[in-house]
Amino acid sequence: MLAKQRILVVGSGISGLSFVLALLKQCEADGVAPPSVTIVEQHAEPVNDESNERANYSIGIRGDIGGVQALESLGVLAEAQRLACDDRGFFVGSVWRDGQWHQDVMLERSERRPEARGLRISRVKLRALLLRSLPSHVQVRWRTRLTGVALVRDDTTSPATVHVSAQLSRSDDHDDSDGTTSEEAFELVVAADGCRSTARSLVFGEQPQYALRFTNSAGIAGCAHFADANDVPAIARTCHGVLFGTKGRSLFLAHESPTRVMWALSYPTEQPRPRDVDSDQAREALLQEARVCGAEQPALMAQLLDATPASSMRSISMFDKMPHASALDNRLVFIGDSTHPVSPYGGSGANMALVDGVHLGSAVAQLGRQHATIEAAVKAFDAEMVPRAERICSQQRMMLTLSHTTKWWQLRARSMMLTCLAYPRTALTAASGLALATVVGLAAGAYYLYNNADSLTFGGSAPEPTL
Ligand SMILES: Cc1cc2nc3c(=O)[nH]c(=O)nc-3n(C[C@H](O)[C@H](O)[C@H](O)COP(=O)(O)OP(=O)(O)OC[C@H]3O[C@@H](n4cnc5c(N)ncnc54)[C@H](O)[C@@H]3O)c2cc1C
Fold first, then answer.
1. Whole-angstrom Cα distance, residue 466 to residue 455?
2. Is the residue at 233 inside a domain?
3. CB 3.0 to 4.6 Å from 339: which of 87, 334, 381, 444, for a disulfide?
């Protein structure tokens, strides 16, 4: 049954590739013939992508939201760890302790739970690893875009047959205009085409609940290259993390190699930034803007900016969207950024993309066993994905608000939260103390009431005052 299905995957990013790998791996494990899989990618096959500084940022794969486990189930964790940056953990800065703001609070990666240890890896390397892991019979059709999609039902057959007709346009190798266009039929289309998903706009148009939402946050990012490892600012020498400012700005730093540090300043704003202009002058202006924007950390920013080539500069406007379920009678399913894009500062988009890919892959592979139809498999995936992604998107929105706050009570709440993270034992002792005090207080109150019950009046009207 599964072998007769034709599946189209739109996009060869992290979510699309992990779906294909999970599906084929599961079929192999179950000893069933796999479905026919077609992957289309609008861009050309990547060649030497690592030299493109603006696209080659590192991403954090986390154990707490399933990214590490997803890589493990795809069978690529060991290779990803080998390719990962030498990153020993996560720090947070600006924690309120002993009456003053502290920096350099380090959360070492737990050695006790190696399975949950995260890793930082270049996005380009991770995607290349997933591409390399595809079996040779699965080819990506490069420079091929999805340009149209429709559900086709044929009621003249018994039972009625249903398929999705996809319009695919292949562009010329030397120019981006659409060259040849074909109409092809599939039983399932997987939209893994990123935050500005074509599939999403083709089926939902301009409906507001499917539109991207500006998070009122933007950022400026770059990559500092130091001549010597000893020149790297101490805070970013072996780890990654965030310095939270008190004036609404925060600075993310990630150690990517002994001499390379990625940095990103973020700040609150009413309007998204204009699209970056691709010129030396515009990038130089971005560098200068970062100097002003990072004024709360003048020495650190000067160190970073002096080592940052203008060519690595980019600006980021942060959009997100709550997840939505599949369309076209469960024959068009959305995974990764196409359904739940989140701000890059939360460090969870790629993790969610991996988890989606793995879960959808194993749901579809169970066709004929646990799920009777493709629609049932997609429904089961949506029922798990939507609440999971909603929870993470809401957490990301809260973190973004706390990152950029200037309100004193939010600053206090943030510092308490970070202190608990950084000093879990102290927080646990304080919480236990508070709980014990509450229990003792309640017990003492109950004892008092018990012993004085006769002399106490509850309810009823108050006694008349004696004049
Ligand atoms: C600066 C930055 C830092 C980040 N850091 C982190 C981090 O630390 N941790 C983390 O978890 N996440 C991070 N993210 C987010 C993460 O990169 C994304 O969430 C993840 O790449 C989403 O994967 P995806 O496969 O869903 O989409 P994408 O990676 O966007 O892939 C979509 C693919 O579809 C193709 N496509 C689009 N339209 C069509 C079409 N019509 N036809 C054919 N192909 C099409 C695109 O070309 C692309 O290859 C970061 C993002 C940025 C920008």
1. 19
2. yes
3. 334
Is 200 domain-assigned? yes
Range name among 174-188, 222-236, 327-341 with the lowest pLDDT average = 174-188
- Is the CB of 141 inside a 6 Å radius of any atom of ligand 1? no
Taking the CA of residue 342 as reference, the ligand 1 atom at the shortest distance is 19
124-134 pLDDT per residue, tens: 999 999 999 99
Ligand 1 atom 39, closest CA: 193
Same structural domain, 191 and 259: no
pLDDT of residue 467: 54
> Which CATH number belongs to the domain containing residue 221 in this structure?
3.30.9.30
Q: Are residues 229 and 163 in the same domain?
A: no
Residue closest via CA to ligand 1's atom 26 equals: 336
Last residue of a domain, one of 319, 351, 371: 319
Shared-domain flag, residues 66 and 165: yes
Domain termination residue (choose one: 262, 289, 319): 319
Residue 71: pLDDT over 90:
yes
- Tell me what pLDDT residue 95 has: 59
pLDDT given for residue 220 in this prediction = 94
CA of 134 to the centre of ligand 1 (A): 19
Give the global pTM: 0.88
**Cβ of 146 below 6 Å from ligand 1:** yes
Q: Count up the domains in the chain and report the number.
A: 3
Sign of CA dihedral 181, 183, 185, 188: positive
Same domain, residue pair 289 and 438: no
User: In terms of residue numbers, what domain contains 424?
Assistant: 409-443
